[in-house]
Amino acid sequence: MIMESLFSEETLNKSIERLNSLTTENVRLWGKMDVAQMLAHCNETMDVARGKRSIKRGFISYVLGPFFKKEFYNDTPVRKNSPTHPTFVMVSQYDLDSERNKLIEHLKEFHKGGEAKCTDAPHGFFGKVTKAQWGIGMYKHLDHHLQQFSA
Questions:
Q1: Average pLDDT of span 69-86
Q2: How far apart are CA 46 and CA 49, in angstroms?
């Protein structure tokens, strides 16, 4: 099975369509964030994937990360209510349109830069992953949150 990746133009376009379908009326199916907070959360994670921000790995990630690493880029869905790194917990109020536009720009730039512009840094929990795995994992994360709001 070929995994979807944000490096794929088809996956990028489909993701943007799904993002554009979101409104403040979208109700979460799980979790605590509203739709604008979810978009802000995804923006923060894209900063990491694009190498614009780094996350310090905690001790537990060195112990457990290797056991769960394949979940970042395999075809199993992200579990609902999975733990979130404290840095990515969004509790402030955000503007949906602003966060959506910012995320679409992140996705376009990530896609355009391809693997060459993707971070070399280890994932904050899973550790060392390839650039191809970053493309898959970031799509998988985005897809999880779009499904959270029925998009």
A1: 89
A2: 5
**Residue 146 to residue 43: CA distance in whole angstroms:** 13
Residue 32 DSSP one-character state: S
* Cα-Cα-Cα-Cα dihedral sign, residues 57, 59, 65, 66: positive
Q: How many helices (H) and strands (E) does the chain have?
A: 5, 0
Across-strand partners of 89?
none
What percent of the chain clears pLDDT 70, i.e. is strictly above it? Answer: 99
Its pTM stands at: 0.94
Distance from C-alpha of 110 to C-alpha of 47, rounded to nearest angstrom: 10
> Nearest CA to 34 among 95, 120, 116, 106?
95
Domain spans, the chain:
9-148
State the DSSP H helix or E strand holding residue 97, giving kind and residue range, or none if neither.
helix 96-117
